[in-house]
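Sanity check

After download, print the first record. It should look like this:
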Amino acid sequence: MKFKHFPLQKLQKTSGRFRFLEMIPGLMFWITILGALILSFIKPIWVIYFIIVFSIFFIIRIYYFLYNFIASWLRYRSAIKKDWWKMLKEKYPQWKDYYQVIYLPMYTETYDVLKSTFEHLQNCDYDPKKMLIVLGGEGRAGENFHQVAAQVKANFGGVFYHILFTEHPDGLEGEIKGKGSNANWMGWRSKELIDEMGLDYDRLIVSYFDCDTSVHPQYFAHLTYTYLSHPNPTRSSYQPVVLYNNNMWDSPGPMRVAAFSTTMWLLGELTRPERLYTFSSHSMSFRALVDVEFWAPDIVTDDTRIFLHCFMHYNGNYGVTPLFVPVSMDTVMGENIWQSFKNLYKQQRRWAWGVEHFPYMVWEFWHRPKIALSKKLHYLFNLMEGMYLWATGAILVFVLGYLPLYIQNTWYKQDLLTSSAFVQNAPFALENIMMVGMVGILFSAFIFLMLLPKRPQHYTPFKYLLMILQWILLPVVLIVFGAIPAAESQTRLMLGKYLGFWVTPKVRKQ
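Expected structure tokens:
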């Protein structure tokens, strides 16, 4: 059965029901924030109760997350110590019948970025002659892609099974400018080549990477071992540990905190595969990729949408299998500190644009009765809970939490003795709750040090102290580079001010 894809732009323009679905996340955010503000003046006691209960829930959720994060971290530590290449060859000699198809979409990145990526692929504990690499440039980028492609071909042309260079034309109908439309073009062009070569779709394992992705030496051996161990490997995507640490030592403190917070969240989710979506770099079967006609060319967050397309196409019989061997990518940086801040904000806003999946999921679920209702509710709740707390959590706890206390003590006198006693003790309760949360932050800082790449020689050991002290920035980072960009994305979707794809610049110190 051919995969049915609802054209997003057509739905947005012609369907009032779809537009209403797009408005729901933004309405939830603004009802919460404005409700808390208004009630702080009208019924401050109510809001104080709510904030304390919400803060306790928030802390409990953080510690539950830390539990899962620690469990994943231990599995990660164990996985990277294993010789997956040796285990693969001993248990699954049929690995030789499989090929790795690696997609690397790029825009204006320099050869230095691609050189590092290709060197890591070449140096894997895996046969590079079993790797078919697709490097896809954008026609609108001008001569940059041709220059980079020529350098890649000159230095790596004979290393791998094959390198396919594709150039995505600008302005194709039904597309937006972005990574997904480029990847879609790469997919179709690679299919033509694969059909010419006569390769078996079921024996092709796809990896979809950002062009700055550095794979762990054991990644493809671990991926192939997991793929061949799976009872139905073509009905699953494979999500690795994602480390944003290629240039971690060079990036400013807020960038490091934001990057590691993302790594923590992704790592913590790996212990709960029933909640997983694909994010950023991931792998899957070429069979599934062809069945859903490759990545969507008309959305921003194509990395997650490809999983949802497969989930819909196979009527819920599709999932995500965690991989505990990592891939590494760049931390956000700019030419200067202010440009770094701008780049980080735009990256977080683009990630938060994943809220666009909510109307799509509701719409698709309505048209796919074969998917179990329990699965539909489970995935919808996971998505909405995450997006809602992303936008509201830090603002409620760190900003609005103290407003009703101030108003109650300033505008209202001690109307009731019980209310007064409660109000007087509320700041201490919030302070104690925050202190409990600080323990989790300190533990996170310790794990952060364990995940750091090797310290460059031009940095002194004193840099480790700065790596610890940077965590005092966490509340600010959670608000400025977490809640606010998430709120903007949800508000934009609510108003129909759609976000285009923004390419994160790859900046590294020389």
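If your output differs, re-run the checksum step. Summary of this record's structure: The radius of gyration is 24 Å.
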